[in-house]
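agent> Task received from the user: take the single chain below, predict its 3D structure, and emit structure tokens. No templates, no multimer pairing.
agent> Plan: (1) validate residues, (2) run structure prediction, (3) serialize to tokens, (4) report one or two observations.
agent> Step 1 OK, no nonstandard residues flagged.
tool_call: predict_structure(input=
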Amino acid sequence: MPNYNAQNPPYAVYPGDVVYPFNDETPAAGQASQQYAIAGAYDGAAGGGSVVRFDISYASAPTAVSVEIQSAIDDADANYFTEYTSTNTAGESVKLTNFRGRFVRAKLVSQTTGGAITVRLER
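)
tool_result: status=success, residues=123
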């Protein structure tokens, strides 16, 4: 899927779904990925939120990197905030429990050398 999808609403991710916000891509620093709606996300009622897992990997390891996992209640660029920042040049798996955002995306803040990035989102 391309970055910056203008589809309204964006693609939804349900429990058991796997999507790739970045799929072996080389985005520019500061570029956000495709955004996804978290179907059945926390609505303010009693109870916890969703569980989302991210696997971040690189075609070849960068010497320095910063990738943010961001969420928002409303799908507008200014509403996204950082849930987690990865600086692991070897890649990593991140499990966010009690996730309460309705929308989620990855953002490549910076990358020094290294290969294409892949971010796998599993709900």
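agent> Step 4: summary for the user.
The chain has one domain: 12-122.
agent> Done.
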